[in-house]
Amino acid sequence: MKDQHYEITICSDSVGETAEAVVKATIRQFDAHQVTTKRIGHIKHEDEIRTIMESAASRGGFVAYTLVQPELREMMREEAIRLGVRAVDIMGPMMQAFIDTFNDSPKRKPGLQHEMDDDYFKRVEAIEFAVKCDDGRDTSALLKAEIVLIGVSRTSKTPLSIFLAHKGLKVTNLPLVPEVKPPRELFMLPGSRIVGLTMDPDKLLKIRTERLKAVGLPFGAKYAAMERIMEELDYAQKLMNQVGCPIINVTDKAIEETAGIIMGYL
Which residues hold ADP (predicted)? Predict the structure, then answer.
């Protein structure tokens, strides 16, 4: 496998985001830099599946698919057998379990995940809120937020805010700096609505040093000095203890993992 390139084909009769998310989560569990993905969405006809499967067979990879139309799923299974290509039905077993357990019938309508329902508009509102209130820009928004993230610079506050906003949660974040007094609104919130983010000093030093390089600042600036980092982390720890919030060490944690922990608190 080390010397050969492989491709995973992702097929859907909608956009294909569900299948792609599962495939990419799987790839991350392996040292598979030579594996790429190809997403093909809005499949409507059986002929399309035949062409896709023949291409996959020639490339030596496998296929992951989310197809809700029975005839398309059956064609996928038939072509997989005919060509000897592994095809993974991501949604089918879940739908069958729902049918068997609850004695219900699926709508078999592609793209329901992307319909503009109340949840959709809630997510849009949450994303707009997170962008507007990022990095402590609007301290009055702290009282309107469902979650307030606090932490020193480079502890993933902004990407985490946006990720949670995509889940429909109104999130704002506040950078903690020893020289800047926290806004009074922070102390008006219950600790359960605040989440503190921290990181191991060595990891934070490495991240900040890379950040200096990226913006063209000289090495050795105070921002990336260990003494300064320890000062900031100590200050942040004391403030987090003062407001009584849960604290998450985000060192080597993916955004999704940290978000899962926070949603578990909720």
Answer: 151-158
